[in-house]
Design brief:
This protein has 379 residues and is an alpha/beta fold. It is 45% helix and 15% strand. The chain is built from 15 helices and 13 strands. A 7-stranded parallel β-sheet has the order 3-2-1-4-5-6-7, sandwiched between helices. A 6-stranded parallel β-sheet has the order 10-9-8-11-12-13, with helices on both faces. The longest helix is centred in the first third of the chain and has 25 residues.
Length: 379
């Protein structure tokens, strides 16, 4: 008998792909077959046994576009839904799991038409627009945060707080103690942000370091993600104050950098929040102001309310304000240790396994049942 198949539908960004990949690995370890449905932008992820079928369908975002562009995007989604309907009718999966992003909509819509069980996973503290469009079709909605806004009252009974799956390298940090740190010792600071954060951080953080008393600067060890276009300018600022920092547009070993960090500064995407919490690291979070529905601010506030982070809106993220935040942290290591402990109270180490449990509980007890259901609905 062939293995039951789970189809994962995810948009092309890392915020959707990372949790999809973690779930795929968890389900693969339990002996299920996995297929990924995405659009042309979506990259495939690897499974340990290499057993992953990738299918691409048409999709397009409709938010913030002109009427003509929205009409074109709607046609793309209709075409993608037809493609996904034919695909799912042939594959006959036991369950379809949507991770948001407009690329997930065709597969979820097609699954609904075929009568297949649907589980959605929402990474952010505000239900994303794609998931909002198809939430009524889902049997269960897994959430990365304990509280999620934008969910209709009729869909709230479907909610299950599983957390956001994180990489195995980050899970390993959960069992490691917070790095030793004293009031006269060095503090390791990690700054990340990607393309939507690095430019702001490139302007503010070097100037904030310049404003610190020289004695405090000497105690800082800084690892900072910097856009390639900004590298020379950032290096020049640090050189002008005699400060050494490790700068790079990309760090392939980011979990290892997080392991040695006493403090993280970054945006407030769902994956960043989840990894910071699981690793148990204090954070200064600067939500991306242009994020859809201001969801990054909601994400950040969840960590702040637990006592694990300080939230600085973009408008308030100045060199002077950041320097004022850093000085007491350098002087009061107990505060950082307290924030680290608070972070671990909200981090969910086994989020991928919890999500896998929910998916399997939603799928028919016998994989053949889903085949019959799909066949009847397609007839």
């Amino acid at each position: 008998m062939s293995r039951p198949l789970v189809v994962l539908a995810a948009g092309g960004t890392g915020g959707h792909m990372f949790p999809a990949a973690a779930l795929a690995q968890a389900l693969s370890r339990r002996g299920l077959a996995i297929a990924l449905v995405t659009d042309r932008r979506g990259g495939a992820f690897a499974l340990p046994d290499g057993d992953l079928a990738v299918h691409r369908v048409r999709a397009a975002a409709m938010a913030g576009a002109s009427f003509a562009a929205k009409a074109k995007a709607g046609i793309q989604l209709l075409v993608g839904t037809a493609q996904a309907w034919l695909l799912l009718r042939r594959l006959k999966p036991a369950v379809v799991v949507g991770f948001g992003g407009y690329a997930s909509i065709p597969a979820v819509m097609a699954a609904h038409r075929l009568g297949l069980p649907i589980v959605l996973h929402e990474q952010n503290a505000v239900l994303g627009r794609a998931n909002r469009l198809v939430a009524s079709y889902a049997r269960r909605i897994a959430t990365g945060f304990a509280e999620v806004e934008g969910i209709a009252a009729a869909d709230r009974p479907k909610l299950a707080h599983t957390g956001n799956p994180v990489r195995p390298e980050v899970i390993a940090l959960a069992s490691q103690p917070y790095p030793a740190f004293t009031a006269d010792g060095g503090l390791n600071m990690l700054v990340t942000g990607g393309s939507q954060g690095a430019s702001l951080f490139s302007r503010v953080i070097p100037e904030a370091i310049r404003l610190l008393p020289e004695g405090m600067r000497r105690r800082l060890k800084l690892v900072q993600q910097v856009r390639a276009d900004d590298l020379d300018a950032v290096r020049a600022v640090y050189a002008s104050i005699g400060f050494e920092a490790e700068l790079s547009p990309f760090f392939a070993d980011l979990p290892q950098r997080l392991a040695t960090a006493h403090l993280a500064i970054g945006r407030a995407g769902a994956s960043t929040i989840a990894e910071t919490a699981v690793a148990g690291r204090p954070a200064i979070l600067v939500p991306y102001a242009a994020a859809t529905d201001d969801h990054q601010t909601k994400n950040a506030r969840a960590l702040e309310s637990a006592g694990a982070a300080i939230v600085m809106p973009e408008a308030a993220f100045t060199a002077e304000a950041l320097a004022a935040r850093l000085q007491p942290m350098l002087a009061l290591p107990d505060k950082l240790r307290s924030m680290a402990s608070a972070a671990r109270t909200v981090g969910i180490v086994d989020a991928a396994e919890r999500l896998a449990d929910l998916v399997l509980a939603t799928a028919p007890a016998n994989g053949n049942d889903s085949t019959k259901t799909a066949g009847r609905s397609a007839a």
